[in-house]
Amino acid sequence: MKKQYLLLIILFLMGTFSYAQDRVIEGTVVSASDGLPLIGATVVKKGSTSGATTDLDGKFKIELSKPEVLVVSFIGFAQKEIAVNPDQTGDLTIRLEEDITKLNEVVVSGLASSVKRSNLGNAVATVSSEELTGMTNQPTMDNALYGKVTGINITSSSGAPGGGVAMRLRGVTSITGNNQPLFIIDGVYVSNAEIPSGLRNASGANSGNEENASNRIADLAPSDIENIEILKGPSAAAIYGSRANAGVVIITTKRGKRGETRVNLTQDVGFSTIQRKVGIGQRDWTPALVAEVFGPDEVARYNAALNGRGLIDYEEEIYGETGLITDTKISATGGSEDTKFYVGASLRDEEGIIKNTGYTRASVRANIDHELTDRIKFTTSSNFVNSTTQRGFTGNENEGGLSYGYNMAFTRPWANLYPDEFGNYPDNPNAAGNMLLVRDRALNDEVINRFIQGASIDINLYETDQSFLKFKWNGGFDSYNLETYVYVPEYHQAQGVQNGFIGVGKNSIFNTNNQGFLVWDNYLSGGSIQLTSQVGYTYITFDRDLVYNQATQLIPGQTTLGQSGTQELGQTLQNVKEFGFFAQQEMNYEDKIIATLGVRADKSTLNADQNQFYYFPKASVALNLANFNFWNLDLFNQFKLRTAYGETGSSATFGSLYTSFQAVNIGGSPGVSVGGLRGSQDLIPETASEFETGIDVTLLDNKLSFTATYYNRNIYDLILQRALQPSTGFNLEVTNLADLQNQGLELALNASPVQNENFVWTSTTNFWFNRSEITRLDVPPFAPAGSGFGLGLGTAFIEEGQPVTQLKGTIDGEVVTVGDAEPDFQTSFLNSFTIFKNFDFSFLIHVKEGGNNLNLTTFLTDLAGLTGDLDDPSGIERTSNPNTDRFIEDASYMRLREIALYYRLPESAVDVFNGAVNKIKIGASGRNLWTVTSYTGYDPEVSAKGGTGLSTGLDVNPFPSTKQVYFHLALEF
Q1: How many domains does the chain have?
Q2: Which superkingdom heads the taxonomic lineage of this protein's source (predicted)?
Q3: How far is CA 254 from CA 364, 384, 917, 970, in A?
Q4: CA 65 to CA 649: how far, in whole Å?
Q5: Domain limits for position 13
Q6: pTM across the whole model
Q7: Rounded to an integer, what is the distance from CA 616 to the centroid of its chain?
Q8: pLDDT tens across 690-731, in order?
Q9: What is the CATH number of the domain that holds 679?
């Protein structure tokens, strides 16, 4: 018996020893749809940090000492778990299905960590490269987001090529400060500034925010983008601290993939035309009507025109061009086990719908990933952009003689403004300027050279099956030189005193940021609890050097500053430094309960006490009920409840802390005196706190998903100016004087109703709205500077208990609310179809219901008697109304944002190139081809006051928006 017991013990020990020895298991990860290998897929033992990555053939090797469950994941595919054991033999092939619902998409949860979407405690919107640019050609990144994400309101401040777009996430977040989100590209904090050209100084007839400058995110080529993540509120963006009050947009550009080098070449050719005309001057003119409107003396001029050139449609003359658009893109990607690369170049050349306007952007990018050792990874991202823009002269100008639309509003169609046989342009008898002379001879140009450099390094400091410690550093700089040039000839009729104008801007921007993190992943209780801890710091600098030169009294025919009689030079220097540190703890219990707790602390030279830290906490929890043992509803793949809270900040604008000075000249001696604005030494940052809660549901084998999010955001200590008693010696002081609340609802429904070999249909429906209210105001109600044109014509108006987007005016002498620029709601409907594997058809419809515009374009043509509907009942009713509400219009619309049809040539057709070409795709698409609206202006999406402040809903002679048609050819080599 003893020998038998001894034999059993030996056999048991041998079995134990056999399992104690690691065995190498080999396998392959492929796509279930076409069987192609997935390069770079991740294979991890469940409940541990130990794993492998697939190679160029989709193969992997992993060591096992006992039976394990392998978790296999790859971007764009549904995660899969498979049980294996060390004694397994034969080929292990793992097939991954496409992730239609994005449940396993990895998104940012901190500055150095990420989490699956199915485990998020916040509503984080993501847009892939295919969603961004896969349907049609996109001129800029922000233009491409229209209607694709809930909670975003996008408004164009100019239809000119080269940008001019304002993006707001979950409503207005500041009255006088920044309302644009923070943009981060590959870890680099980048500028989205609008820098005016000084055009206003040519006539002194408008303000800087009315110059319709382009916004600098337009420099990023959309074709370079791999993915965009949008943190819409403080509950998600708190970890970004004092730069995140208006949200954060995180952009990841394309990177290399292991494998042989692939080259992609795309050629797009398009045409751009005005979306709609408003019919300036197109009344049914007769001699009797001319006499009635303009008097009997004008009839002779009218008759002379009829007997000569005829009536002229100046709207068609100015805005009637068909702009040619060409966009050429080439990229190469590939790599080995240690090094991956992506290089790309693009050239976009876009003509405007106005002669001598246009935009050219040349972009070159190189992204490199290199594994120095098994534990050290290094990446770089380099992007150089050169762009040239001819923006023309549009917008409000108060009789300055330069704006096409402003002068067109008063020009009668029988006035002949064309040059004579010697090239001399006549003065405009009806307005301050001849639009044709300005179009043909004046210049409003900008040239930018920009370099964005990012880098990161990841070091694995310590690793076991149950824990993982790494250090990560990333940073970079954003540097650009923006040169602007404005020229108005001395013979322009409104330049009688100045004798011409030249304005030259030399603007230099240099921003840097660097961040360091420690991240520790640890598994407890046999892998059922995962803890992710991270701590780190952030250091940011912003430097601006804005030099502006202007000259008048030009020597005839000369176009340089030196050839002038009067010159003026101005320079603005700004330097900002910010430092912050943060800590965040995440806990995941078997993908059932996921909780996050974190805090960010920032200090800034923009604050009154530059060494005081301001703290921004965050917390979130998500419950994946469908993962609990008690859940027995097989209909649901996911049923998640989530809630989150967070705080962010926004510091004062540069110079708010200091008393202003003004230049003086006494007896020929230059000096300075105290200005009228007193700095505040008690100024603190504007702070936003947000509570967010929601539900995420996925069912029917991931064919249908629904997301609902409610948020309540409160912004405290808004920075305003208040009047001071004359005894102080100052007129105004900048300090914290108001609070603001935004509440809203965001809904999204994603469906894949049909999926078979010959027909695939996916659909997304989005719905969202926002409501705002001024909850505290420690000064009398007021109209913010630069947000309107006075109560007589209408303006944004700040008043406690009212929306921050309300529009005030006068009716029968009383100041009343006449409208609200905030939409009642927005919704979008996106559908994509793949037919017989080779045809792709898709379209996006966007609806905005409600929201008012102040249409002062019509007001000007009414004054001139040239509005096309003045003979109709609606026009007669409008002009007989003396009150502000006659200019308020409903800006609702339904728009076909994008539509496209593509055909992928079958392999048999591609084979005629003898292997030189792998894939060929051809297609046609359109942007903004169809709009249904009762709004009578050029476009219900309008902002005459630029992209900052409370500018939405003001319409004064914009550069009209366009509709575009494209033809596409894409080749892969």
Answers
A1: 3
A2: Bacteria
A3: 13, 15, 22, 17
A4: 51
A5: 2-98
A6: 0.91
A7: 24
A8: 999 999 999 988 889 999 999 999 999 999 987 777 777 777
A9: 2.40.170.20
